[in-house]
Amino acid sequence: MSRIMYLKEAAAYLGKAPFTLQSWDRAGKLKAHRTANNRRFYYQSELDQYLGLDHNEPIDKRKIVAYARVSSNGQKDDLKDQVAFLRQFLNARGIIADEYISDIGSGLNYKRPK
């Protein structure tokens, strides 16, 4: 079996609140095991399975993507600087990005109805 995680640690591992895991246990979505004192615990392998992680898959198969974004066309030079910084940052750590994505666009929608 894999490592045992109690409720608080398992919740942090999943990025959820402990109350959420308690609710999931009651609903049967993610069943917890119980100790003799009735404390909930989970096996890490079961949490990984829930997350869809496959530890048999080599890490090298993952794709590394660098993303840079500015909010307007007037900042194209800043976008080039961001991409250059990302390249330098990754190269300094020996990481080769599979893809660089640059985006120009604001997250604000000025045409939305008031």
SSE layout and pairing:
Blueprint: E1 4-6, H1 7-14, H2 18-27, E2 33-34, E3 40-43, H3 44-51, E4 65-70, H4 76-92, E5 99-104
Parallel strand pairs: 4-5
Antiparallel strand pairs: 1-3, 2-3
Strand order of the largest sheet: 1-3-2
For the largest beta-sheet, the strand count, sense and barrel status come to: 3 strands, antiparallel
Large-scale geometry: elongated
How many structural domains? Answer: 2
Give me the Rg, rounded: 22 Å
Mean pLDDT: 88
Strand content: 15-25%
Give me the CATH architecture of the largest domain, please. Answer: Orthogonal Bundle
Q: What is the helical fraction, as a range of percent?
A: 25-40%
Number of strands: 5
Distance between the termini: 57 Å
- Level-1 CATH class name of the largest domain: Mainly Alpha
**Secondary-structure element string:** EHHEEHEHE
Q: What's the CATH topology name of the largest domain?
A: Multidrug-efflux Transporter Regulator, Chain: A, Domain 2
Low-confidence stretches: none
